[in-house]
C-alpha cells in the first residue's frame, strides 16, 4: 500500500473549497455532549490535517467546557492547523502510537483518514486504549466500494486500484470494531447525480485528493487531458457521478 506525502500537498490542500464547504456542525458530538454532562470534555481530532474541522466545531461549541486536541503525522499539515487554531493542543505523531495516556478522551473524530493507516488494527487498538468508558469514536470516510462511478475513477481508472488497497470494506470495519468490544452503529449515505465536468477540472488540476498523488504521473496526465478533451468538445459535458459516505459511531461501554 502506497502512502500519501502530505508535506508535498499541504500548501495547496485548502485550495480545494469542498474541504471547507462540506464541513458541518458535528451533531453527533453535540448529542454526546448533551447526553453526558461533566465539568470538562476532552475531544480529539485524530489525523486532523489542516484543522478545518476543529475551526468549525470550536466556533459551534465555543461556550462548552471542551479541551480540544489534534493529532497528525504530517508536520506541514499541523503547521497550517496551528495557524488557524490557537485554542487546540496539537501533537505530531502516528495514529498507531499516540502520545496519550489511557482512558483520556470522551470523543474522538476521524475524518477521511482511516484508509491512510498502514496498521489499521493497531490504530483501532490505540483508539480503544485512549478512550474513557462511555466515550465515542466517530469514523467518517468515503465508501469506495459503493461508488464505482465517482468522477475520479471515471477519469483516472488506476485510482480505484490504489484505493482498493487502502480502504477496508464496511463489513470488515464493523467486525474489527465489534470484536474489540465497541458498540457499533454504521450507515452509508449514497447519492447518484449528473455533474458538470467543468466544475471538477480545478479539483483535478490541484491534485490534492490523496489518491491522485498515488497514481503515476502518466496516468494522472492522461486523465487530466481526457477531462480537457471532453470540455473542448462540449463545455457543458456531463457525466453520471456517484458518491458514498460512511458514518460510523463506536461506543466504549
TrEMBL record:
One of its GO terms (biological process) is methylation. It comes from the Bacteria. Keywords: Methyltransferase, Transferase. Pfam families: Methyltransf_31. SUPFAM superfamilies: S-adenosyl-L-methionine-dependent methyltransferases. InterPro entries: Methyltranfer_dom (IPR025714), SAM-dependent_MTases_sf (IPR029063). Residues 39-143 form the Methyltransferase domain. GO terms for molecular function: methyltransferase activity. The keyword NADP does not apply. The keyword Transferase applies. This is Methyltransferase domain-containing protein. It comes from Gracilibacillus kekensis. The lineage of its organism: Bacteria, Bacillati, Bacillota, Bacilli, Bacillales.
Amino acid at each position: 500500500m502506497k502512502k500519501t506525502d502530505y508535506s508535498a500537498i499541504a500548501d495547496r490542500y485548502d485550495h480545494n473549497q469542498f474541504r471547507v464547504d462540506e464541513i458541518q456542525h458535528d451533531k453527533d458530538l453535540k448529542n454526546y455532549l448533551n447526553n453526558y454532562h461533566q465539568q470538562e470534555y476532552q475531544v480529539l481530532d485524530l489525523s486532523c490535517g489542516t484543522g478545518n474541522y476543529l475551526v468549525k466545531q470550536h466556533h459551534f461549541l465555543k461556550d462548552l467546557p471542551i479541551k480540544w486536541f489534534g493529532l497528525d503525522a504530517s508536520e506541514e499539515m499541523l503547521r497550517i492547523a496551528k495557524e488557524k487554531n490557537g485554542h487546540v493542543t496539537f501533537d505530531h505523531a502516528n495514529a498507531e502510537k499516540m502520545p496519550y495516556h489511557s482512558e483520556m478522551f470522551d470523543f474522538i473524530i476521524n475524518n477521511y483518514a482511516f484508509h491512510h493507516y498502514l496498521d489499521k488494527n493497531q490504530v483501532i487498538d490505540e483508539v480503544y486504549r485512549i478512550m474513557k468508558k462511555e466515550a465515542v469514536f466517530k469514523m467518517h470516510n468515503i465508501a469506495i466500494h459503493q461508488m464505482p462511478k465517482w468522477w475520479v475513477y471515471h477519469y483516472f481508472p488506476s485510482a480505484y486500484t490504489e484505493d482498493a488497497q487502502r480502504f477496508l470494506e464496511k463489513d470488515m470495519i464493523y467486525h474489527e470494531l465489534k470484536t474489540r468490544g465497541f458498540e457499533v452503529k454504521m450507515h452509508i449515505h449514497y447519492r447518484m447525480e449528473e455533474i458538470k465536468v467543468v466544475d471538477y477540472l480545478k479539483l483535478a488540476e490541484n491534485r490534492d485528493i490523496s489518491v491522485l498523488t498515488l497514481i503515476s504521473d502518466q496516468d494522472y496526465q492522461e486523465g487530466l487531458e481526457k477531462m480537457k478533451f471532453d470540455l473542448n468538445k462540449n463545455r457543458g459535458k456531463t457525466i453520471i457521478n456517484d458518491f458514498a459516505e460512511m458514518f460510523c459511531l463506536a461506543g466504549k461501554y
